Amino acid sequence: MKIPPLYWFIFATLLMHATHIFGQKDKALHFGAGATVGAWGTMTVKNEGYKPLIAGIGWATLAGIGKETLDKAGFGTYENKDIAWMVIGGIVGSGIVYFTNKLIHGRHRHRAERNI
User: Fold this and answer.
1) Do residues 98 and 56 lie in contact, with contact meaning Cβ atoms separated by under 8 Å?
2) Per-position pLDDT tens, the chain of length 116
């Protein structure tokens, strides 16, 4: 799967400024990981309706819960806020990919995919 340079630019910009936005490096890393997983999850699903957006947010949520489960088992420090920042990052990452695809490919491609 080829990832357009526009996505990398947007994510790099978000990650560079995340520490300043959130005030804590840990929360910025959770946001960045959520955005990355959410974007990946959105790109792996066929573009039909809102399925890609839901998949991306779902993957980011699952990753956040999984990571915090490991933390609670003794591999790190458990915090509910870390899950929240993963989900918020997933929403942002999925949204960027989903709506950018809609802008780039428009409705014509979407209709053509349904007729195949």
Assistant:
1) yes
2) 555 666 666 666 666 666 566 667 778 888 888 988 998 898 888 877 888 899 999 999 999 999 999 999 988 888 888 899 999 999 998 998 888 888 777 654 444 455 55
Interatomic CA distance for residues 19 and 17, integer angstroms: 6
CA distance 55 to 61: 10
Residue among 23, 47, 48, 22 nearest 35 (CA): 22
Which pTM does this prediction carry?
0.74
Q: What is the number of other CB atoms lying within 10 angstroms of the CB of residue 64?
A: 23
CA angle (94, 98, 99) in 5-degree steps: 120
